[in-house]
Structures are given as C-alpha cells and as structure tokens.
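On clarity, I found the account of how folds are encoded harder to follow than it need be. Since the whole study asks how a given chain folds, the encoding of that fold should be made plain. For illustration, here is how one protein appears when written out as sequence plus structure tokens:

:::
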Amino acid sequence: MRKALVAGAIAAALSAPAFADYPSDVAEKFGRGLSNGALGWVEFGKNLYNEPVQHGPLYAPVGLLKGVAHAVGRTLVGAIDVASFLIPSPSFVQPNYVWEHMDTETSYGVK
C-alpha cells in the first residue's frame, strides 16, 4: 500500500510542470475564440482590400468571395475554441487573430 502511495506521489510531482501552464493556455484559447468568433466579419474587408492590391482591381470579386469564406471559417473556429476551451490546443487558424498580419491570407491547420 505504501509503495502505491509513493508511486502516485512521484507521478503527480513529475506531471505538475506539464500542468503549470494550464490556466494561461485555457485563458488564451478562450480569448482567442471570443475574438475570432466576434470579429470574423473583419475578414470581408481584409480580403476585399488585399486581393485587388496584390493582383489588380479585377480581383475585387475574388476578394469578396474569399472574405465570405474566411469570415465564416474564422467565426466557426472561434466558436469551436470557445466550446472546447477547457482542452488546450494550438490555434487552428493563422494568424491567430484577424488583426495580426493584415496583409497575409488566412490559413487553416495546426502548425
């Protein structure tokens, strides 16, 4: 019995550093989810501006379509992050927030 208690105490002590960042990871994911869910619509303007600047004025409709797609994608990823914030995970959308790197296209997937 005593060996089991000692083994359990050692296992708990060794795993403590792994959980040291848990509160900040959870808070980061929750905040990221809230901002992406609430501000996903900013992707409209971001893409409507970036496409014509990078490829010419005839690409404005492409920017509008990309804006719609990325707005929906970022909003859904934000909702999923809020719903699962107790399970820390890396960001699925890059850049993490819509206001970061406004000149780059939004991409999806864990990096």
